[in-house]
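Section 5: illustrative case.
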């Protein structure tokens, strides 16, 4: 087989969709910083130059990856009151970001957003406006809700424990050796709540989300 025929065969096996899907799978395993064109090519079993047939470089790949992640997030469901629809969208966003933790800092950083990104933002804005929120309140609500979702996802991804025995082990190492006289509140909180059966940091997400939604709804009712 000639080199030209081999290159054509490689391109035939590739597509932009395969390049982006492969990049997401790789980033899910190793993170976004170590992801390079060469490493992606190795993972896909192709030559690096064949990837450049579809994208000009890593930044374009990241643009496409972020757009695909936005496409995984459920938009606010039609036919529901705005608060419940936005709640479901935020729950979906958190689930998707937990699946792709590398994506959280990048979700609002792209200067060339794709169609899925634009459609998602348009759907959220449309849901808030259909719920009767003014333009200024819509802006505040969207900013506050996404800051909360992204912030929680980032914190969750970087926690040194995943729950259950991990929390107990961490408490044994860090908190329990502390003096209850010097750090009474840390010790009380850890022994009385964190180490109690059923504790899971992730349960705080819905609690905080509902507080935000209730506050936005109350502000909307006041006509702000």
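Designed sequence:
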């Amino acid at each position: 087989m000639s080199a030209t025929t081999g290159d054509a065969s490689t391109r035939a096996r590739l597509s932009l969709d395969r390049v982006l899907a492969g990049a997401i799978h790789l980033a899910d395993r190793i993170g976004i910083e170590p992801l390079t064109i060469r490493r992606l090519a190795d993972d896909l079993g192709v030559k690096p130059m064949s990837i450049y047939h579809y994208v000009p470089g890593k930044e374009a790949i990241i643009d496409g990856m972020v757009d695909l992640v936005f496409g995984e997030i459920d938009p606010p469901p039609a036919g529901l009151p705005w608060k419940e629809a936005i709640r479901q969208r935020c729950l979906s966003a958190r689930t998707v970001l937990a699946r792709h933790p590398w994506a959280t800092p990048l979700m609002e950083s792209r200067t060339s957003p794709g169609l899925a990104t634009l459609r998602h933002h348009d759907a959220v804005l449309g849901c808030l406006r259909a719920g009767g929120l003014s333009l200024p309140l819509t802006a505040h609500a969207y900013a506050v809700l996404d800051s909360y979702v992204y912030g929680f996802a980032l914190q969750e991804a970087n926690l040194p424990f995943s729950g259950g025995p991990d929390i107990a082990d961490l408490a044994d190492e860090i908190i329990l050796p502390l003096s209850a006289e010097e750090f009474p509140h840390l010790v009380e909180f850890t022994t009385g709540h964190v180490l109690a059966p059923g504790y899971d940091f992730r349960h705080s997400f819905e609690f905080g989300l509902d507080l935000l939604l209730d506050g936005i709804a109350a502000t909307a009712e006041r006509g702000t």
